[in-house]
Structure formats: structure tokens, C-alpha cells
Amino acid sequence: MNPADRIIELTEKLNYYNERYYMDSVSEISDQEFDLLLKELESLETEYPDLKQPDSPTHRVGGGITKNFANVAHRYPMLSLANTYSEQELIDFDERVRKGLNGESYEYICEQKFDGISLSMTFENGIFVRGVTRGDGVRGDDITTNVKTLRSLPLKVNPKEGISVPPIFEVRGEGFLPFASFEKMNREAEEAGEESYANPRNAASGTFKLQDSKEVARRGLDAYIYQFLADQEIFATHEESLIALKKLGFNVSQTYCKCATIADVMAYIKEWEDKRYSLPLATDGIVIKLNSFAQREELGYTAKSPRWAIAYKYKAESKPAILRGVTYQVGRTGAITPVAELDNEKLNHKGIHLSGTTVKRASLHNANEIERLDLRIGDTVFVEKGGEIIPKVTGVDLTRRGMFDTQKIEYPTNCPECGAELYRKEGEANHYCPNEKGCPPQIRGRIEHFIHRKAMNIDSLGEGKIELLYEKGLVKDAADLYDLKYEQLFGLEKVIEDKETGKVKRIGFKEKTAQNIVDGIEKSKEMPFKQVLFAIGIRYVGATVAEKLASFFKNIDAIKNASYEELRTAPEIGDKIALSVLEYFQNEDNRQFIERLRTAGLQLTAQNEVKEIEGDTLTGKTFLYTGTFENFEREALELKIEANGGKVVSGVSGKLDYLIVGDKPGSSKIEKAKKLNVKMISETEFMAMLAV
Ligand SMILES: NC(=O)c1ccc[n+]([C@@H]2O[C@H](COP(=O)([O-])OP(=O)(O)OC[C@H]3O[C@@H](n4cnc5c(N)ncnc54)[C@H](O)[C@@H]3O)[C@@H](O)[C@H]2O)c1
Ligand SMILES: [Zn+2]
Which sites bind Zn(2+) (predicted)? Predict the structure, then answer.
């Protein structure tokens, strides 16, 4: 792949993972993999500065603000930290500090890198007034009521032992969910048939952003404070400020350590490599900060992080385990995922201990991966867990093959859930079960997708509840949800026996649960068309594509009746998506499904959302743009065109009226426009058209 394409690909991918991580509290890849991709993008951008995308994640703090809370500007920007997994880069960091300080002596404070979310807490006249998330670094979500539930946070600070507190000050720290609370919360979620979080960080992030602060209080969040900020200079060093914060009643972790040299820093890192698992919360590294505030000022900041600090992240921990067997999971699309069943050498079903948690299973992705690893049942394998995410099998310890009986893995030819014969699509690594209409996990998976936050957002339902409804024969597809009655739900019960421990668990719908489900389903009828379109689960129509289709075609019938060519005229709709949409609506069952949703009262027409009409100077004209613009982000440019009556199309064709050419335009679009005699205009010319 050429550098230009790779840069675009990396930018898109990283922005996507950032959104999932910060907005949805979900890690789709491990932190280490994320950091590796980010490093790759950074070095490509250094080599080819012209190719850098305007929305590049390399120079921005990764978060964002939600629509669920008021957002407020930070008094002092909230930055990220530079990070590294390598000792050499720590030595390089120390070199830069030494050079930057021109021979002055200096020292570091090392702290644990707590794995939660950053919080800013403002006090006025000693009273806690505001708690805000980091957001995009400039503005964050005002989550004051949720932050108030932290029991260790003093809501009123009294001056103590000669520490004068200024009238306005801010403390910063990491909000987190201790392991114990995390496990309790996931246990409860499981019992209630709700989805559990993959790791404590994601759980903390999701919890701090709940609307219901009673529920927040119940979950047992906590925070460690590690920074004091005010307009006045009160402390000379970080150490002094930590001591004072503690005296003032803040929860300051006592695991920090002052280090005179980078060798001492290394020793601290080594010391905590294993010891950190004995802490009551998840950590993912060590933060190294210059101690003197005056020296910090000398070194300053980049756009994204201070130059006086760095985070050292521990590499994913790897350990051996025995492969007991392989099971096969069937997903919503019918894709089969082989899963390694792992255990310790005693094969006592207790699994292995890895990064502070018990591991019994790991994804093997697909048949090719099993072949690539040359896996056999009974093998000793290496298991790795990065950023507390789903573990993976990285290799086989061939020196130990034969210590246990090993057995070849026979990849199944039939679906483990419904028995249908599996097939493989050309060019795809996965096997699929073709039995869309009759294979239980596929049916349940589609309903789970339907209720997703970005789809119909029915959060009173979850995996376990759907399973129960399906097993009782109450729902066979998502449209059935709209026929559910309170009387059918109340008292439903299911007994689950844990195969390993023999323990029996009961999932049951009491009054409140049943009512919440009915209310949640009713409320979902208000969800906008774009979300309904995403919810119905057409292949390749993700949330963004659904939004594009909805705003272009305006209603479901227009999409249903659109030809391949018409679909392709919608912005950013390519061949694969167009074919998939066509195929979906050719299927009579799907058409009936849509009719049932219509009868239930779902929104199948786009309301004229935020798009305001500014004028009609562009009416009847089609536009396409290429490159970057001074006055508009892509999205804003599209809105501007549409707000003035114009239409944005997806590709250069003879029918295109104007190609707006920005900075660093794509050469293929320009070539094609020249060939077809399409008028090319600059940003200024475009603005002039609006002014007419
Ligand atoms: N897995 C994914 O999909 C995914 C997606 C986006 C980001 N990430 C991860 O998140 C990282 C970026 O997140 P980030 O910008 O929050 O950076 P970061 O988490 O690497 O470091 C900065 C943060 O560390 C926290 N922190 C914890 N202990 C601290 C201490 N003692 N002192 C100071 N700060 C402390 C603060 O909240 C601070 O904002 C990426 O490098 C990646 O590892 C992962
Ligand atoms: Zn099946």
C-alpha cells in the first residue's frame, strides 16, 4: 500500500477506535495494538508531512464530548501523556529533559498509571462545585452529580497546617472502578441478563457517564488525586503538592516514589511489574513526571502532552496455558469463531492467572489462524492479554509438545448450534452458517444488534434477557418485541446451571424489570430513521452509512425502491454497500419485517433534523469536493451545500456540475473531471456562489 492510502487508512481506523473507546467505552483492539498503529501513523506523517489528514489523531487529545451532559470549557487544558513501551525511549526522554534544563539538576516522581478516566474537579471557596471529564482536552462533560458520589472526595476543604488554599483551585485525578466493584457489577449484570463490561476501565468510563447518579453511587467508583492547579503558585514541587493534597483530605495513592536518576526510575518500574496486581485497581504502567514546577515550565508542552512527563506502559503479559479444547461460537452474521478453552497444567478447570484476572478462554479468530499456529489439543500455548482485553493465543511451545497427548483439531463441517453445513465465502477467512432464519445465535444476535445504543437504544434489554425471551418463544425477530405485553414478561424465569461449579442461578423478571422493558421498547419508537436503518442490520450498513443513506434518501421506501445506480449516487456509497442493500430488499421476508416495523410505529422517514435551509442559490446543482478546505471540515461543507439547495454526489461523472478543489486534492478526481469537462472551482469561488 502506498503511504498516502496507508495514512488515510490509519487515520480512519484510529479515529474509529478512539470513538469506540471514549464515547462507547469499548476497546475493540488492545491498547498496545492501538499504540502501535498510532506510532506508525506518526512516523509516516513525519516522513510525508503533506499527506497528513486534517482530522489526524496524532496531534489531538483522544476524547470527545457527549450530548448527554452540558459541556464546559476547562480552565487549564487537559492533555494526554506521551507513552512508550520501551526502556530505550525512556532513556531518550531523560536525555531530552537533561538537554532542556541546560545542566540543572533535577528529579522525578514516579506514580502508578491508574487505568480509569481523567477527572477535573473545581473548588470555589473550599466547596466542590464542578466535576468534568477530559473530553477533547478543551471542553469536557459536566458530570458533577456523578463525581459527587465518590465517597473519598471531600466536598468541602478546610485549610490545614499552614496550607493556604486559594479561593479557586482545581484538582485532577483518575476516576476508576476497583476490581472488587467491577466484579460485583459484572456478576449482577450477568444475573440480570445484561451485558457485562470487558475491563474495569471501560466499566468506569461507562459508569461516570450514566444519567442516573443513584446507579453511579451504587457501583462503587473511586478516584485517586494526582494534581493541584491554581492561578497562584503555592507549591514548588509535585511532591509538596501531593503531601499537601493528602493533608487536605484528598485520596492520594501512596505508591509514588521520588527518583533521582533514570536508573532509579527503571528500578521502580521493575519493582511494580508484578506488584501492581496486588493493588485493588487496574493500572497499565508508570507515569514519570519532573518534580520541580519551575523546571516543568522550562520544558513546556506539545499540542497533545507535556514535555516534562512520560508514561511507561507495561507490555501485555504472556503466560503458558494448556489447550483443553476448541469450541465454536456463532455470531449475528453467521460467522464462526473458534475459541480456545484454556487451563493450567493440573487441568482442574481453574484456568490461568493473567494480568490480575482468571483466563479460561481466548479467541482463535478462524481456521487459518489455527493452521498458522499449528495448534493441537493438549498443546502448551502462550497466552497474552493486552490492556485487559480479550486474551489471545500467540504461539505454541513446541518444546513441550508430547508432554500431554495431543490431538489434531478437526474444524467442524456443520454449525455447532443448528447443524447446517458451513460454507466459506471467497476471499474470507471465516466459515459461515447459512441458516439465517433458523440458527438461534444468529437470531438472538440480530435482536441484540437491534437494541444497541446506536440503533434502537433499548437499554432495558440485554443479551441474557433476549435469550430468555427467545427461549420462551416470545420473540423470533426484532419486530416481535413490539407485540410484547407486560403480562407476558412478568414472572418469566430461567434457571441456569454453571457446568463447572454446579451452582444454580436464576434470571427472573420482576415488576420493575418487566415494566422497564415495556417502557424501553415503547420509547424506542421515537428513535430517528437513521437509527432504525442501522438497527435492521443490513450487511455493511453501519451507523455512519445508515446516516448517509437516511439523509440522502429520506425514507425507507426510497431506499427499498432505489436501483443500483441510484444507490451509488448517494455520498460514499460504494459497490459493496449498494449490492448489499439491493440484496436485502429483494428478500420478501425482509420486506415483511419492515412492514411490521412500520405497523408498530417506528420512524421510517427522516425528520428534517438540524439541517437548516439557508438559501436556494445551489438548487438543482450537483457537487463533489476533493482535498481539504480552510473554512470547512468535510461534514460542514456537505451541510453548507445541502442547506443551500445543492446535492452532494459520490463520484465524478458527466452529470457532475462542480468539483470543488481544496488543498492537496486527489489526483484521480482531478484527472477524471478534466476528461469529462466538469467545471472545477476553488473554495473562494464556491463561497462566492453562495453570496449571490
Ligand atoms: N484500545 C483501544 O481501542 C484504544 C482506543 C483509544 C485509546 N486507547 C488507549 O488510550 C491511550 C490514549 O489515552 P489517553 O490520551 O487517555 O492517554 P493515556 O491513558 O495513555 O495517558 C494519559 C492519561 O493517564 C491517566 N493517568 C493515570 N494515572 C495517572 C497519573 N498518575 N498521572 C497522570 N495521569 C494519569 C490520566 O487520565 C491521563 O489523562 C492510547 O495510547 C491507547 O493506549 C485505546
Ligand atoms: Zn447455525
Answer: 415, 418, 433, 439
